[in-house]
Design a protein that fits this description.
Length: 75
């Protein structure tokens, strides 16, 4: 398995209206390897003031949007 529960991934999220991108950390809950999706809790405070995302929110993130991976021992 590429990603494990408790690992962290930095992912990109893009505002569809403005086209602006933001990088945030997700603490992994579990992975769906066949569909290349990780599920976890948002571990960052979104910088965009109008963001609907909140720290602790459970999200699904495609492997295509992941740019960095760290295990808890790396932090």
């Amino acid at each position: 398995m590429k990603y494990k529960s408790g690992d962290y991934v930095k992912f990109e999220i893009r505002d569809e209206k403005t086209g602006e991108a933001e990088w945030m950390w997700l603490r992994i809950d579990y992975c769906d390897e066949p569909n290349k999706v990780v599920f976890g809790w948002l571990d960052s405070q979104p910088a965009a003031s109008g963001s609907r995302l909140k720290p602790g929110q459970h999200l699904a993130v495609s492997y295509d949007n992941i740019r960095e991976h760290r295990s808890p021992s790396d932090l």
